[in-house]
Design a protein that fits this description.
Number of helices: 7
CATH topology: Carbamate kinase
Shape: globular
Largest sheet: 9 strands, mixed
Strand content: 15-25%
Structural class: alpha/beta
CATH class: Alpha Beta
CATH architecture: 3-Layer(aba) Sandwich
Oligomer: single chain
Number of strands: 11
Length: about 240
């Protein structure tokens, strides 16, 4: 950890899956889980770190899921994007209940519930200490929320992408199915792409590689981990 508990990163993009707020049910939104997550985010924000968030929608609807298999891909993806807006509003509500000012910015116009994404406005919010949640993915079908996270991270010049997951890093195989799976402490972008490791999808990893954006994959559900990562503790897996 940095001396005095100072932050290693000044501005971060936190990438969450929809399952991060669904609890053990893996579906829908569990208020207690959202509240706990909001407290962890508030702890980091209170230390002066500027935080932007991209959250997936898989707990409600996923464009590539079995339930979407007979649908037109674009239609299914738009439904998935709308699911991310629902999750973003839930997280905004939980953060503001913690006294943390938060803005939801949507990739497509939804004036009644969020601001349209404007890069300079997003930067202004962050500079004023507000948390910004980017909803609606990239606003285009065929792109994942991982790609949206990479895109927004480049646009607002974050120091790192923090990918919160249910495992404590990247392994060479599924640690749930294979007890002998080996965890990586550090990986290059090319190693991730070459071996098809499930960090983020290939489009988003390629974008990070082209723009030299580091990604830290860590266990979000271990209390206090988010703050440790922001302070530069070596937990999870660093992709750079």
């Amino acid at each position: 950890m940095n001396e005095g508990g100072s932050m290693k990163y000044k501005r971060v993009l936190l990438k969450l899956s929809g399952e991060a707020i669904s609890g053990e049910d893996h579906f829908g939104i569990k208020p207690e889980t959202v509240t706990e997550l909001a407290k962890e985010i508030k702890d980091v924000a209170s230390l002066g770190v500027q935080i932007a968030i991209v959250i997936g929608g898989g707990n409600i609807f996923r464009g590539l899921s079995d339930s979407a298999k007979d649908m037109d891909r674009s239609t299914a993806d738009y439904m998935g994007m709308l699911a991310t807006v629902i999750n973003s509003l839930a997280l905004q509500d939980a953060l503001e209940h913690q006294g943390t000012p938060t803005r939801v910015m949507t990739a497509f116009p939804m004036q009644s519930i969020g601001e349209p994404y404007i890069r300079r406005r997003a930067l202004r919010h962050l500079e004023k200490g507000r948390i910004v949640i980017f909803a609606g993915g990239t606003g285009n079908p065929y792109f994942s929320t991982d790609t949206a996270a990479s895109l927004r991270a480049m646009e607002i010049h974050t120091d790192v992408i923090l990918k919160g997951t249910k495992v404590d890093g990247v392994y060479d195989s599924d640690p749930v199915k294979n007890p002998k799976a080996v965890k990586f402490d550090k990986l290059s972008y090319l190693e991730v792409l070459k071996h098809g490791l499930k960090v983020m999808d290939a489009t988003s990893i390629s974008m990070c590689m082209d723009n030299n954006m580091p990604v830290v994959v860590f266990d979000l559900f271990n209390k206090g981990n988010l703050k440790k990562v922001a302070q530069g503790e070596k937990i999870g897996t660093m992709v750079s």
